[in-house]
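In full, the data.
>
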Amino acid sequence: MKTRLAIESDGFAVLPDVFGARECAGLLAEISESPLSRSKAGVRHAMRHPVVAALANSAMMLSIAQQVLGPGALPFQATLFDKSSEANWLVVWHQDTALPLVERRDTPGWGPWSLKKGIIYAHAPATALSQVLALRVHLDDSSPDNGPLRVLPGTHNKGVLSDDAMARFIAEIEPTTCVVARGGVLAMRPLLVHASSKSRSGEPRRVLHIEYAASLTMDSQLELAIA
């Protein structure tokens, strides 16, 4: 209940100690041995890995998602972000608005469209994105120095923002730095304006970002792809 209320008001919530150190280490070992294609920043479309799919569909993770999205909530997409001294980057303030879809059907409010690693994506309207929740499993400690997520609380309720509107909120709202210990989960809405800086330390910051939807059917003509 507290998680749902925090997400409704702020757009995010931190849940500490959801997983133990041994579980995090085991997950990292499994992913490191997988044949999934990696980029410098990590692994896209990680739901194809059985251990990631099992974690995403575990009773603990489903319980968190279903508190917010309802009893039908299911995972549909996962990404491993792997920030380190060798792979260091910053992410500017933005919202997550693109969703993977089974097929392209031109529908009012959806688009532009793109193709990433064989998966069709479209930028979605706020009505669809309000049915999505991301759960970010922290596989390392997230500290103030290793490029943690920063968010602008409350911006998840502002709709899909124009560049000018986003700039106004960036100027007006004090950002919150989301420091999360290993094994903790950060729950966040995709329309929450967020960013991250480059790491200033040699500590890795690996995060498994799993997205859930209230239903895989987003629109009468559009269905989410499992990615």
Remarks:
- The helical segments are 2-10, 21-32, 50-56, 59-69, 126-129, 163-172.
- Residues 2-95+132-211 form a domain with the Jelly Rolls fold (CATH 2.60.120.620).
- The CA atoms of residues 8 and 154 lie 8 Å apart.
